[in-house]
Amino acid sequence: MKASAAWRPTSATPRPWLRSFRGVGGRVLVSVEAHETVIGPAAREWDMVLIVEYRSRRKFLEMATDAEYLKIHEHRAPGLADSRLLAFEALCRLAARAASREAERRGEAVL
Fold it and tell me: Which of 42, 63, 83, 109 has the highest Cβ tally under 10 A?
């Protein structure tokens, strides 16, 4: 099994990492191929972008430290020349949380 095929979410190749991923409530939000850089270096640095969501950071860490996942994970590095792992939160959630905290601070009812 080619490493890159093992990690590509659209591949028909069996992907054992999906069991760990789905086991903690992970879901793929975006899976796209990158064709050219619009803003940034002219060289094509990325061929794929994958954005996933987990129920919580705790669930992500549960998966990332799972013995079965780590065993499968050894196939990831040979399939990637470069990668980034970024933790982020949707801005709309952050804004809603900030508005809720502000309303609580003012003593207003929060729905």
Answer: 63
Residue at 72 is within a domain: yes
- Residue 111 belongs to a domain: no
| CB 3 within 8 Å of CB 79 | yes
What number of CA atoms fall less than 13 Å from residue 8's CA on the CB side? 16
The CATH number assigned to the domain holding 94 equals 3.30.70
What tens digit of pLDDT does each residue of 15-73 get? 666 677 778 888 888 888 888 888 888 887 777 888 888 888 888 888 888 888 787 77
Q: For the whole model, what pTM was predicted?
A: 0.59
**Would 55 be classed as within a structural domain?**
yes
The owner of tokens 């659209």 is 10
